[in-house]
């Protein structure tokens, strides 16, 4: 990861240059020299930048879904957004989380292996207090969960996994299921310590309480999907899904479109003068005979041949023949 200096470090660097403790020309010379970058094999980079960007897009959508879900469940202001997406050894992830926290260990068939959603105690207990009728303020001291509190936690986070499946459906159809709720990271060993994991950190705010939700996805679990996590595949899949959705909408609209269906008893040709002098009681002789079948038009095309009659006291036609090809009427 690229190191970003804090404001204090920037101020200290500028002071050192101003006081003469550090020479700017030497810094430029050092920058121009060829640098050798050390590689730590324990921190093997298994995810490409392209795949990290795809994971970011997927979980930005997941963050929006979680915001909607928790807002409805807690009935208070909830804001969740992706803070970072990193890859690091599993052992380092375990060391980075509190000694007492909420760990939701889950599986997602057809993927093989387990994943973890870690909820910072401030956020977890604020949710718990809100669900039990409180204001949603995190307690000063975090203790062990009671059986009732554990059941409530399992219920709310099990439902949150439904949104996880929704966020991933553009890549794969999965069925996440909560396997275990743990509070001590030392008792959670889902992969080997040196296994690379993708850690998606969500910045979370519930009312006035802030904290982090971390999603740990081991590389060994996502390995069958690595090809699908490329931007080219992901975008082409998105386009395919969008096209299929548009085709479904178009098909539904075509099915519900209304077309004029006209049964034509016969035709006749008269002059304009004869038309102008028509009066009540005049008879117009048709060119068709009574035994001829009636042409049935759908729109401007003749599609059926039928015989006239009545049905329940109303004029009707009985379809006798379906024309294999559309027949255009002569103008």
UniProtKB/TrEMBL annotation:
<keyword id="KW-0282">Flagellum</keyword>
<dbReference type="GO" id="GO:0009425">
    <property type="term" value="C:bacterial-type flagellum basal body"/>
</dbReference>
<keyword id="KW-0145">Chemotaxis</keyword>
<protein>
    <recommendedName>
        <fullName>Flagellar motor switch protein FliM</fullName>
    </recommendedName>
</protein>
<keyword id="KW-0283">Flagellar rotation</keyword>
<dbReference type="InterPro" id="IPR001543">
    <property type="entry name" value="FliN-like_C"/>
</dbReference>
<dbReference type="GO" id="GO:0050918">
    <property type="term" value="P:positive chemotaxis"/>
</dbReference>
<dbReference type="InterPro" id="IPR001689">
    <property type="entry name" value="Flag_FliM"/>
</dbReference>
<feature type="domain" description="Flagellar motor switch protein FliN-like C-terminal">
    <location>
        <begin position="252"/>
        <end position="323"/>
    </location>
</feature>
<keyword id="KW-0969">Cilium</keyword>
<dbReference type="InterPro" id="IPR036429">
    <property type="entry name" value="SpoA-like_sf"/>
</dbReference>
<dbReference type="GO" id="GO:0071978">
    <property type="term" value="P:bacterial-type flagellum-dependent swarming motility"/>
</dbReference>
<keyword id="KW-1003">Cell membrane</keyword>
<keyword id="KW-0966">Cell projection</keyword>
<dbReference type="GO" id="GO:0003774">
    <property type="term" value="F:cytoskeletal motor activity"/>
</dbReference>
<dbReference type="InterPro" id="IPR028976">
    <property type="entry name" value="CheC-like_sf"/>
</dbReference>
<keyword id="KW-0472">Membrane</keyword>
<dbReference type="Pfam" id="PF01052">
    <property type="entry name" value="FliMN_C"/>
</dbReference>
<keyword id="KW-0975">Bacterial flagellum</keyword>
<comment type="similarity">
    <text>Belongs to the FliM family.</text>
</comment>
<dbReference type="GO" id="GO:0005886">
    <property type="term" value="C:plasma membrane"/>
</dbReference>
<keyword id="KW-0175">Coiled coil</keyword>
<dbReference type="Pfam" id="PF02154">
    <property type="entry name" value="FliM"/>
</dbReference>
<feature type="coiled-coil region">
    <location>
        <begin position="10"/>
        <end position="42"/>
    </location>
</feature>
